Amino acid sequence: MTTHELFPLDELEPDSARRVEVSGRDIAVVRIGDDVYAIGDTCSHAEVSLSEGWVEPDDCAIECVAHGAMFDLETGEPLSLPATRAVPVYEASVVDGMVVLKLDAGSGGGAS
Ligand code: FES
After folding, report:
1. How many whole angstroms from 66 Cα to the centroid of ligand 1?
2. Domains along the chain?
3. Spacing, Cα 50 to ligand 1 middle (Å)
4. Beta bridge partners of 92
5. Is 49's C-beta closer than 6 angstroms to any atom of ligand 1?
6. 3 and 100 in contact (C-beta within 8 Å)?
7. pTM above 0.85, yes or no
8. How far is the CA of 53 from the centre of ligand 1 (A)?
Protein backbone atom coordinates (compact mmCIF):
# COMPACT_ATOMS: atom_id res chain seq x y z
CA MET A 1 0.00 0.00 0.00
CA THR A 2 1.41 3.38 -0.95
CA THR A 3 0.13 6.74 0.26
CA HIS A 4 -0.01 9.79 -2.01
CA GLU A 5 -0.76 13.31 -0.88
CA LEU A 6 -2.60 14.91 -3.81
CA PHE A 7 -3.80 18.50 -3.24
CA PRO A 8 -5.60 20.63 -0.65
CA LEU A 9 -9.30 19.78 -0.33
CA ASP A 10 -10.07 23.50 -0.77
CA GLU A 11 -8.88 23.28 -4.39
CA LEU A 12 -11.77 21.01 -5.27
CA GLU A 13 -15.26 22.51 -5.26
CA PRO A 14 -17.95 20.44 -3.54
CA ASP A 15 -19.78 18.15 -5.98
CA SER A 16 -17.00 18.28 -8.53
CA ALA A 17 -14.26 15.99 -9.81
CA ARG A 18 -10.66 16.28 -10.85
CA ARG A 19 -8.45 13.87 -12.74
CA VAL A 20 -5.07 12.96 -11.31
CA GLU A 21 -2.42 10.58 -12.53
CA VAL A 22 -0.79 8.50 -9.82
CA SER A 23 1.61 5.65 -10.47
CA GLY A 24 0.53 5.53 -14.10
CA ARG A 25 -3.17 5.28 -13.28
CA ASP A 26 -5.75 7.90 -14.26
CA ILE A 27 -7.97 8.47 -11.27
CA ALA A 28 -10.98 10.75 -10.80
CA VAL A 29 -11.03 12.35 -7.36
CA VAL A 30 -14.55 13.38 -6.45
CA ARG A 31 -15.70 15.64 -3.64
CA ILE A 32 -19.18 15.43 -2.14
CA GLY A 33 -19.57 17.75 0.81
CA ASP A 34 -16.36 17.25 2.77
CA ASP A 35 -16.01 13.61 1.71
CA VAL A 36 -13.72 12.48 -1.09
CA TYR A 37 -13.88 9.45 -3.34
CA ALA A 38 -11.44 8.06 -5.87
CA ILE A 39 -12.51 6.06 -8.88
CA GLY A 40 -10.85 4.92 -12.09
CA ASP A 41 -11.10 7.86 -14.47
CA THR A 42 -11.74 5.90 -17.64
CA CYS A 43 -15.35 4.95 -18.29
CA SER A 44 -15.78 1.20 -18.78
CA HIS A 45 -18.01 1.84 -21.81
CA ALA A 46 -15.45 3.75 -23.87
CA GLU A 47 -12.29 5.76 -23.41
CA VAL A 48 -13.90 8.79 -21.82
CA SER A 49 -12.71 10.62 -18.72
CA LEU A 50 -15.25 10.30 -15.90
CA SER A 51 -13.90 13.41 -14.19
CA GLU A 52 -15.37 15.39 -17.11
CA GLY A 53 -18.81 14.17 -16.11
CA TRP A 54 -21.37 15.25 -13.56
CA VAL A 55 -21.22 14.46 -9.87
CA GLU A 56 -24.54 13.22 -8.49
CA PRO A 57 -24.39 13.84 -4.73
CA ASP A 58 -27.79 12.27 -3.97
CA ASP A 59 -26.72 8.98 -5.53
CA CYS A 60 -23.05 9.22 -4.46
CA ALA A 61 -22.25 8.68 -8.12
CA ILE A 62 -20.68 10.23 -11.18
CA GLU A 63 -22.31 10.36 -14.59
CA CYS A 64 -20.27 9.89 -17.73
CA VAL A 65 -20.37 12.90 -20.01
CA ALA A 66 -20.48 10.81 -23.18
CA HIS A 67 -23.51 8.52 -22.90
CA GLY A 68 -24.78 9.03 -19.38
CA ALA A 69 -23.73 5.86 -17.56
CA MET A 70 -23.62 6.41 -13.81
CA PHE A 71 -21.03 4.82 -11.55
CA ASP A 72 -21.30 4.28 -7.79
CA LEU A 73 -18.39 6.13 -6.19
CA GLU A 74 -18.07 3.63 -3.34
CA THR A 75 -18.11 0.42 -5.37
CA GLY A 76 -17.28 1.47 -8.94
CA GLU A 77 -20.32 -0.51 -10.14
CA PRO A 78 -22.34 0.92 -13.02
CA LEU A 79 -25.78 2.08 -11.91
CA SER A 80 -27.11 2.59 -15.42
CA LEU A 81 -26.48 1.61 -19.01
CA PRO A 82 -24.70 1.68 -21.37
CA ALA A 83 -21.82 0.73 -19.04
CA THR A 84 -21.96 -2.84 -17.75
CA ARG A 85 -18.56 -3.26 -16.14
CA ALA A 86 -17.28 -1.72 -12.92
CA VAL A 87 -14.39 0.71 -12.78
CA PRO A 88 -11.78 0.43 -10.00
CA VAL A 89 -12.22 2.32 -6.76
CA TYR A 90 -9.45 3.50 -4.48
CA GLU A 91 -9.18 4.59 -0.87
CA ALA A 92 -9.27 8.37 -0.51
CA SER A 93 -9.45 10.51 2.61
CA VAL A 94 -8.74 13.99 3.90
CA VAL A 95 -5.81 14.34 6.31
CA ASP A 96 -4.99 17.77 7.72
CA GLY A 97 -6.86 19.42 4.84
CA MET A 98 -5.06 17.43 2.15
CA VAL A 99 -6.63 14.83 -0.10
CA VAL A 100 -4.75 11.58 0.42
CA LEU A 101 -4.94 8.52 -1.81
CA LYS A 102 -3.91 5.00 -0.86
CA LEU A 103 -3.00 2.62 -3.63
CA ASP A 104 -2.49 -1.09 -3.48
CA ALA A 105 0.93 -1.78 -4.90
CA GLY A 106 -0.23 -4.73 -6.97
CA SER A 107 -3.89 -4.63 -7.88
CA GLY A 108 -5.74 -2.02 -9.90
CA GLY A 109 -8.04 -1.03 -7.08
CA GLY A 110 -10.79 -2.22 -4.81
CA ALA A 111 -13.47 -3.24 -7.31
CA SER A 112 -13.28 -6.49 -9.14
S1 FES B 1 -18.20 6.42 -22.70
FE2 FES B 1 -19.08 6.53 -20.72
S3 FES B 1 -21.13 5.95 -21.04
FE4 FES B 1 -20.25 5.77 -23.01
Report:
1. 5
2. 2-103 (2.102.10.10)
3. 9
4. 101
5. no
6. yes
7. yes
8. 10
